[in-house]
Amino acid sequence: MNRYLLALCLAGASLGVQAGGFRVGSPEIKANGTIGNQQVFNGFGCSGENVSPALEWKDPPPGTKSFAVLVHDPDAPTGGSGWWHWVVINLPAGTTGLALGAGKADGSGLPPGSTQISTDFGSPGWGGPCPPVGDKAHRYNITVYALKVDKLDLPVGATAALAGFMVNANSLGKAMLTGRYGRSR
Questions:
Q1: What is the rounded distance in angstroms from the CA atom of residue 45 to the CA atom of residue 16?
Q2: If you average pLDDT over each of 4-8, 9-13, 94-98, which comes out highest?
Q3: What local confidence, expressed as pLDDT, does residue 2 receive?
Q4: Count of helix runs (H) and strand runs (E) in the chain
Q5: For position 107, which CATH number holds?
Q6: Distance between CA atoms of 2 and 80, rounded to whole angstroms?
Q7: 108 and 101 in contact (C-beta within 8 Å)?
Q8: Residue 76's domain spans which residues?
Q9: Is 80 exceeded by the pLDDT of residue 115?
Q10: Does residue 99 surpass a pLDDT of 80?
Q11: In what side-by-side order are the strands of the sheet with 138-147?
Q12: How much is the pLDDT for 49?
């Protein structure tokens, strides 16, 4: 990574960068910044708006045939599995981002052919941050994967973990953006 990009990341810029130049950014979530109430879950004691952030990515690896977006909280107190907040697969190769609010449960905000997998909230679509009261701020890793296949064929009712396994098995590269969120009450 060149010094300019490293300085941007360290200064809290909105782009997450990976080797080879593949990167993802969001106007709503700055790198390692606090996630705002618009993206926070509405339920489980949280009163956010539960709107998925806009995302845009650039410079995927050559040979990319589709994309997947996985949003995961590795700090969730689940005995080691973390918490899946959004899983989108089969985004067409020409996709360069997702609009604010694209994570509606019915999938109507996504490009045709895309599929959402149920999150750990028990349904498809964006499920925003909502860590336990008093926990340290959790990390929310938004990862865009460039895949070597046009489509992942997953069974109906596939879990986020199975989707994640298949995404990783078919990955040409990934770009990650991390936001943070905690609550004191």
A1: 30
A2: 94-98
A3: 37
A4: 2, 11
A5: 3.90.280.10
A6: 34
A7: no
A8: 3-181
A9: yes
A10: yes
A11: 115-117, 83-92, 66-73, 138-147, 171-181
A12: 98
Q: How far is CA 32 from CA 16, 81, 134, 151, 154, in A?
A: 9, 21, 19, 31, 32
Task: Please list the alpha-helical segments (H only) found in 52-178.
Answer: 160-169
Could you tell me which residues come within 8 angstroms of residue 67 by beta carbon, excluding any fewer than 6 positions away? Answer: 57, 60, 91, 92, 93, 95, 144, 145, 146, 147
Burial group, residue 27, by CB count within 10 angstroms (0-12, 13-18, 19+): exposed
Per-residue confidence (pLDDT) for residue 81, from 0 to 100:
93
Check residue 13 and give its pLDDT. Answer: 37
Predicted confidence (pLDDT) at residue 15 exceeds the cutoff of 60: no
Report how many domains make up the chain.
1
Q: Quote the longest CA-to-CA distance of the chain.
A: 47
pTM, two decimals, is: 0.89
Detail the DSSP E strand segments found in 18-168.
23-25, 42-43, 46-47, 55-58, 66-73, 83-92, 97-98, 115-117, 138-147
